[in-house]
Amino acid sequence: MIMELKTYTAPKADIHLLESGSGPDLLFLHGAGGIDAGNPFLSALAEKYHVLAPILPGFGESEESSEIRTMLDFTLHTHDVMSGLGLDKPIVVGHSMGGMIAAEMAAIAPNDIDKLCLISSAGLWLDEHPIPDVFATMPYELPELLFHDPEAGAAAMTAGADFSDPEFLTAFLIQNARQLGMAGKILFPVPDRGLSERLYRVKAKTVLIWGESDKLIGLPYAEAFNAAIANSQLITIPKAGHMVMVEQTTAVIEAIGRLS
Amino acid sequence: MKFTWFNLMPWPHLPENFRKEHRSVWVDIDAKLYDPVKGHDVYNDYLDMLEYADSLGYDGLGINEHHQNAYGLMPSPNIMAAAISRRALNAAVVVLGNSLGLYNPPIRVAEEFAMLDVITGGRLVAGFPVGSSMDVNYCYGEIPALTRERYQEAHDLIKKAWRETDPFAWNGRYTKLRYVNTWPKPIQNPPPIHVPGGGSVETYDFCLDNTYSYSYLSFSGYIRAKALLQGYWDRLTERNEPDESPYRAGFAQTICVAETDAEAEKLYKDHVSYFFNRCLHVAPGFADAPGYRTIKTIKSGALSQFTPNLGEAAHMPWKQLVDEGYVIAGSPATVREKMEELIKGLRVGNIFCLIHVGDMPIEKTRYSTKLFAEEVMPHLRNMWPEYADDNRFWIDPLDKRATPGPMSERKAAAGA
Questions:
Q1: What part of A 6-35 touches B (C-beta under 8 Å)?
Q2: How many other CB atoms are there within 10 angstroms of residue B191's CB atom?
């Protein structure tokens, strides 16, 4: 399915969103790397669901918003988008930073979200398992951190271009400064804004999906989420890193199916 | 012209193979390389140098703020300023500066700068930097995209704290205080304010809006600085500012003086190399946290143009460093000539003289410092005669200032 790019005016920002498919409503919240219309995972997901993927301010084509600063701002903005789009209890799926926002929404408004899926989610911090600092990571080091198979991952990230190509690198760095600048508001310098103290409020049936070789947010984090959320189950996926839905698309979509 | 003798205070004991064996001089610098016993001599030598510069008639003594950094041993510049305040009695104390957003609450800056200004009898030049991304984001954990907003609020609070004569409440986004009532207040209210910048239009405007002096603290020398400072002057023209006083701008330059050009190379080459090769070895991932610079600044192309890779000069031979202006070095005549080029070319009234370089020992520092003061500085003094009366950007000390000393001496003097 081809994702359609649309615009939407939320109270704090005009944003873009991707929409496609039919079936149960599914709200997808992207990670700190952003998302675009050519995303194969979203297209595959749209074969089974009515997928809506709002793009955060500062990401992709969505305009920046200096009004969104704190975790609460991110959470309420996304909740505003969800309710503004008329979605009634959609399946809420979030990857990495998007998982952190999804979990916050489910904690703050537990009666509005009854199906939650967190993929390689950020939001917790374990002293024994410090998360690598993506804000001090050079672009060419990212594939190693994000993928089970870094070589294939690098190709997926650059769509055939090369990090050693200065023109590509400049464009990448500008996009990075904009997107990671926004992401840094909730992830820098330590990606913890107190979610662990609020997870007891989550009522949703929750599926946790983790790549077994996630080098960014490792499996101990999956276990910590699993322990903190009352009605959760953990599904780990082999031969997959942090970008599990890129590396094992079918397995991830199957795992999301457990919520239906 | 105002000449400030500026010391970065580098750690002079980095190993020969530092660049190869260590990741970064900054942020995650190997802590095992620091030795507090050696540090005792290092700090005291550096403070001696500042006092020596005062005795030679430099206009200012310059210090700055860095954290977790082996080329800048001053996490607290105000402590260094206090240490020289009662021993260097003539020059301005140029604290360049306090990264406003890092002081919690920021009225700490209003308080400490006021203390320094009062102790020195009105000799403080107050620097208001945002701070480097390495310092404010990676070392001190400020959120990059919120750094500037936090800075702006801190600035407004500090200025108001100096200005107001009654207690007031501050309901900021980043600081909330029910009773702001700063004691003491500075003698110069406000002190002259200098803002180090790196080429963003926002900082140009901030300086012009507030009549602050814009300082470019580059390590790449005056030739590469041309475009950035031209951007500042162009902006000033664009805005129709009433004057283009060169004291609206300052520049930091590495300077090495000897009897001859050949002697300068012989005496200083290794220390300059130590600085560019070891001191500026910063892990590239720490250069610029995403969000620290505004998108407007990034899109303006300022980054590629103005932000040289700190390591670019690591392996440059002496001749290239001199030819390309990274270092102004040579006989007094050579240095004079190039300083004139710098001053006219960049249109600056404030020079921050980086005369101690890298691991330069005290004797060589003394030699170069004295030659510059005696053989170079006097010839450059009057380069901007038409702006001789512009005192907006420099200190206005009390005429009658205290003479520090132990009470016993003072008693003896009184009795004599």
A1: none
A2: 25
CB contact under 8 A, B290 and A174: no
Residues 6 or more apart whose CB falls under 8 angstroms from that of B110 comprise B157, B158, B161, B162, B182
Question: Using one digit for the tens of pLDDT, what is the confidence trace for A2-53?
Answer: 899 999 999 999 999 999 999 999 999 999 999 999 899 999 999 999 999 9
Are A185 and B298 in contact (CB < 8 Å)? no
Domain containing B290 equals 2-415
The CATH number covering residue A88 comes to 3.40.50.1820
Q: Based on the structure, what is the number of domains in chain B?
A: 1
pLDDT tens digits, A167-213: 777 777 788 888 999 999 999 999 999 999 999 999 999 999 999 99
Flag if B143 and A137 touch (Cβ within 8 Å): no
Instruction: Provide mean pLDDT across the span A234-248.
Output: 98
Q: How far away is chain A from the Cα of B194, in angstroms, using its nearest Cα?
A: 27
pLDDT digits 0-9 by tens, B339-383:
999 999 999 999 999 999 999 999 999 999 999 999 999 999 999
Tell me, what CATH number does B232's domain have?
Answer: 3.20.20.30
ipTM comes to: 0.94
- Partners of B148 on chain A (C-beta within 8 Å) are none
CA atoms of A51 and A28, how far apart (whole Å): 7
Q: What is the pTM assigned to this prediction?
A: 0.95
Q: Which residues of A touch B141 (CB under 8 A)?
A: 188-190
Q: Is the predicted pLDDT of residue B305 greater than 50, yes or no? A: no
C-alpha to C-alpha distance for A110 and A104, rounded to whole angstroms = 9
Q: Residue B107 in contact with residue B186, Cβ under 8 Å?
A: no
Domain with A163 in it: 4-259
CB contact under 8 A, B289 and A170: no
Q: Answer for the pair A213, A148: CB distance below 8 angstroms, yes or no.
A: yes
A175 at interface of B, judged by CB pairs closer than 8 A = no
Is residue B117 within 8 Å of B187, Cβ to Cβ? yes
Cα-to-chain-centroid distance, residue B184: 25
Please indicate whether, in this complex, the C-beta atoms of A188 and B149 are within 8 angstroms of each other.
Answer: no
Report the residue of chain A nearest B299, measured CA to CA. A174
CB pairs under 8 A between A and B: 64
pLDDT tens per residue, range B227-249: 999 999 999 999 999 999 999 99
- Nearest Cα residue in chain B from A189: B141
H or E segment at B61?
strand B60-63
Which tokens in the block code for residue B390?
Answer: 């512009």
Residue of A nearest to B293 (CA): A177
